[in-house]
Amino acid sequence: MTILQPPKPKLWIWFLTLAGFYLVWSWLVFHDGQWNEVVTHWPMAAAMAIGSYAAGSTPMGGGTVGFPILVLLFGESAELGRDFSFAVQSIGMSSAAIFILSRRQPLAGAMLKGALLGITIGLPLGIFLVAPWVPGLHIKIVFAVVWGSFGLLHLWRIGEIASHEGMTDFDEHWDHKAGFFVGLLAGAAVVSVSGVGVDMVLYTVLVLLCRADLKIAIPTSVVIMAYGSVLGIFTKLAFTGVQPGVYGNWLAAAPVVALGAPLGVFVVDLIGRKPTLIVVAVLCVGQLVWTLVQESQSLGVLGLTGSIIAVVVFLLGFEKLRAWGAVLGGDDVLAQTTQSSLTGTNLAAIQEDSSSK
C-alpha cells in the first residue's frame, strides 16, 4: 500500500490559508455587521473548542461534538445539527487537513484516492435521494447508533488498535477499490444523513482490516472528512439550502475550529492518541445512552430494541473486519481467537487469497 510521506514540511501553506480565512471571516463579521450573531452564539464557539480538538486528533469530525450539542443539549432540530456539521467541518477539518498535508504526514494514499472519488459520487446522491426521506428522529438515531458503536469498539479494542505499526500491504488496486466503496456507501447512507461519518468508516477499515498505524489512519480520516464537508456544504448551498441558524452558529464557531483542529493534530503527537481516543469514545457511548433515554417515548419498545440490535450488528461487523484483517495480515494467533466471529466465512480461502497476493 502506498504511503505518501514527502520529506520536507511546508507549513507556510497552512499559515497562508489560515490568514486568508481570518481576513474573510473578519470582513463577514465587521463589514456586514454580524458581530451580534457571533456574540449570540458564543456557547457553540465554546463547545467547538473541544470539538475541534477531537476533530484533529481522532477519526471523529467536529460534527461529532457539534451535532449532539445542538440537538441534545440545545434542543435544536437534527436537520440543523447535520447542516451545521457540514458547515463547521468545512473550516475546522479543512484547516486540519491542510496542516497535515503541509507537515507531510503519512497517508494511506491509494485508499484515500478511492474514497475521494467514491464520496464525490455518493454524497450528492445521498443529499438528493436519501436525506430528504429520513425523519429528524431517525437522523438522531443513526448518529447515536453509529457513533455509540464506534465508541464501544474503542473502549474494547483500544490496546490492540493503538499497537499497530505500519500497514498490511495489499495490492494498490484493491486499496483503491475498497476506498471507493467506502466513500460511495458512507457518503450516500451516513454522511448525507448526519453530516459526518466517512472519516469513521474509512478509519475503521484502515485499523481493523488493514491494521494501520494510528499515525496513518487518523490523518487519512481527517483529510477525507474535510473534503466531504466542503462538498456537502457547497452541494446544499447550491441546490437544497441549509437550515436557519446554521450561519450564526458557523460565524461563532469557525474562528475557533480553524485553530482548534490543527492544534489537535499537533498536541496529540505529544501526548499520544490513546488517551484522547478513550475520552472521545466515552463521549460517543454517552450520547448514545442520552439519545435513547431522551427519545424513549418516541421510539417505544420496538424502536429501542431495534436501536440496541443495530449497535450489536455494528459491533459484530467490526469484529468480522478485525478477524479478516488478522488473517490477511498473517496473525495466526489472533485469527484463531476470532474465528468464531466469522461464522459462514471460509478462512482458508481468505488466507489462500492473501498468500497469492
Protein architecture, described:
Helix content is about 80%, strand content about 0%. The protein has about 350 residues and is mainly alpha-helical. The chain has one domain. It has a two-stranded antiparallel sheet with strand order 1-2. It is globular and about 60 Å long. The two termini are about 10 Å apart.
| Spans where pLDDT lies below 50 across 5 or more residues | 335-357
Strand residues, percent: under 5%
The average pLDDT value, as a whole number, equals 85
Rg result: 20 Å
What fraction, in percent, of the residue positions are helical? over 70%
Order of helices and strands: EHHHHHEHHHHHHHHHH
Layout of SSEs?
Blueprint: E1 3-4, H1 12-31, H2 35-40, H3 42-57, H4 63-73, H5 78-102, E2 107-108, H6 109-129, H7 136-163, H8 172-194, H9 198-209, H10 214-240, H11 246-271, H12 273-294, H13 296-328, H14 332-337, H15 347-356
Helix pairs in contact: 1-5, 1-11, 3-4, 3-11, 4-5, 5-10, 5-11, 6-8, 6-10, 7-12, 7-13, 8-9, 9-10, 9-13, 12-13
Short description:
This protein has 357 residues and is an all-alpha fold.
List keywords for this structure.
80% helix; mainly alpha; transmembrane helix; 357 residues; globular; disordered C terminus; cell membrane
